[in-house]
Design goal:
The protein has seven helices and four strands. By secondary structure, it is of the alpha+beta class. It is globular, with a radius of gyration of 14 Å. The structure holds guanosine-5'-triphosphate (GTP) and magnesium ion. Its cofactor is Mg(2+).
């Protein structure tokens, strides 16, 4: 077991439906600690950089449109095995395939409007955290 930090986004479908508290309750219930959090309106440049790995995918334009369509809440979550723990509690990308009790099964609308993002590895977590937070904004 290792104490890790992961990067999380509560996506526009969550802020639009006033679900940030409901999602945070699931996050905290899973034993993850929210050690940094802020609500922002992502610019297109920020969204394109963040999801750059998907630039060639057919849904990229739709993804950037969605991520800039309303405010998001960016977060740093800390806990034992935080990366895998959060991926588990998020559930599958497509909510139709997500397990009962997961954030996406409970709240997501579709494969695009799927409520949350979570980093998929230690290296990507570090890059994603650094894109949105200065070191002194994270208080563990
Ligand atoms: P993230 O935590 O957001 O990275 O989700 P993920 O790791 O579960 O999925 P992935 O990295 O493969 O895809 C990134 C995001 O692109 C997804 O969360 C969706 O919001 C979006 N996405 C993936 N597939 C589709 C698709 O077929 N259509 C649309 N509109 N969006 C998609
Ligand atoms: Mg991903």
């Amino acid at each position: 077991m290792a104490l890790e930090r992961t990067f999380s986004i509560l996506k526009p479908d969550a802020t639009r439906r006033n679900l940030t508290g409901a999602v945070n309750a699931i996050i905290e219930g899973a034993g993850l600690r929210i050690v940094a959090q802020k609500r922002i309106l992502m610019t297109r440049a920020q969204a394109e950089t963040f999801y750059g790995i998907h630039a060639a995918r057919p849904f990229f334009g739709e993804l950037v449109d969605f991520m800039t369509s309303a405010p998001v809440v960016v977060q740093v979550l800390e806990g034992e095995n935080a990366i895998a723990t959060y991926r588990d509690v998020m559930g599958a990308t497509n909510p139709a395939n997500a397990a009962e009790g997961t954030i996406r099964k409970t709240h997501a609308l579709s494969v695009g409007e799927n409520t949350v993002h979570g980093s998929d590895a230690l290296e990507t977590a570090a890059i994603e955290i650094a894109q949105f937070f200065a070191g002194n904004e994270i208080v563990g």
